[in-house]
């Protein structure tokens, strides 16, 4: 894939008329399709990634921001899932807090 992407960047510095709306040449669209099939990203995200990696293409101002925001949100969701406490840990925390409150405030009653 890297060799194919490198040859795309080197040999095709023009924009193909057939895919002018995407701003990618045919090989760029093929790379994007391969990326979307081999990863879990959508075809639109793969096109944005290929556009960003293509040195001769100047992406739309929002393309790179949208792509990076989507990546950040996905990573943030993954991190939240890792940090989300389970119901058992919540119960243990509640039990410890209750015992601490009884120990601290029980003597004053």
Automatic annotation (TrEMBL):
This is Tyrosine-protein phosphatase domain-containing protein. It comes from Elaeophora elaphi.
């Amino acid at each position: 894939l890297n060799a194919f992407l490198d040859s795309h960047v080197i040999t095709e510095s023009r924009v193909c008329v057939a895919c002018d709306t995407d701003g990618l040449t045919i090989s760029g669209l093929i790379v994007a399709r391969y990326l979307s099939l081999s990863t879990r990203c959508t075809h639109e995200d793969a096109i944005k990634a290929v556009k960003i990696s293509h040195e001769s293409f100047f992406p739309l101002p929002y393309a790179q921001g949208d792509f990076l925001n989507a990546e950040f949100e996905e990573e943030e969701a993954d991190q939240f899932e890792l940090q989300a406490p389970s119901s058992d840990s919540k119960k243990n925390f509640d039990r410890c807090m209750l015992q601490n409150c009884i120990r601290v405030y029980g003597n004053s009653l």
